[in-house]
């Protein structure tokens, strides 16, 4: 809970602030460690955000290292609560340590105290606790999360350049349309000479932007939230959106490879830690927000439950590539399904990274070409009549 408090320091000065704590006693102890004496405090409602992937990576690495060094679990969590990054995550770790001291297992404490945490994360940790291999489980889990973070960073980098370049293009075009083009039109209008078609088109576009720019700005701001609400409340629209994401010309293939990578990594992790295959397949379903993929995973779970092999169950769905099915057949035949799943994840992780790099390589010259065409059109439409005037004056 988040508390707003007033306290007094060693110089008898009143200090105000807010801090997370499990209760008033915990808040008072926390302030005393900072050299403050609590005067009064009141709870404040807050919306707890789920821990980030970066925080979970640090958690797995920190706790795994301390457990391997022989440090008890509670002390490892308490050390992370004191030295971890981020005030909110340190407060969560303090609550987790309190729950562990009360006798809760780590998986239950994480599920209770870290609001919104991925259920697969706690499920893997629960399997590590039951098998007695918690340090090894945390190490595998941290490795999986780091690989996911690498792919996510590549995706963010792919989107960053178009966003920056698009903003520059729109800013440049707006400056030319609102300031330069009207002045040139005034000058050309005074000459009374006929204008080329592309110049008239430029002036008509400038008039449209000048007259309706508030609506043109408001339209996306209104349509996007409306579309989001419609998708949120309409399962049919949501499925249509998810299906469209899988079929996009350039990014659809990358999106499918990323989905295969994540599912193979998680399934390998769950299977390796001793979770039965059916339970592992059931745990995969909440990890995807794509309804098409979620329905496919549910059908795969039912097929395996009814006696089908894992490879045959995946082969029924076209969103999964044939190579995935063949590798699963080999893994089931040789009894090395966990290693096969890891190999699948590494294969498609590499393909997704290569595809992201290729798309980014294509985007940069494409945006440069768009910028050149836009500026070239504006310069041609404005300078050609001016050159015509200069030519006539020379005669």
From TrEMBL:
Membrane topology: Multi-pass membrane protein
Keywords: Cell membrane, Membrane, Transmembrane, Transmembrane helix
Pfam families tied to this protein: T2SSF
Coiled coil location: none
A GO cellular component annotation in the UniProt record: plasma membrane
Subcellular location, record wording: Cell membrane
Main location: membrane
Entry's transmembrane regions: 158-181, 212-231, 366-390
Domain Type II secretion system protein GspF span(s) in chain numbering: 66-182, 265-384
Matching Gene3D superfamilies: Type II secretion system (T2SS), domain F
InterPro entries associated with the record: GspF/PilC, T2SS_GspF_dom, T2SS_GspF_sf
Family membership noted in the UniProt record: Belongs to the GSP F family.
The protein, known as: Type IV pilus assembly protein PilC
Lineage: Bacteria, Pseudomonadati, Pseudomonadota, Betaproteobacteria, Rhodocyclales
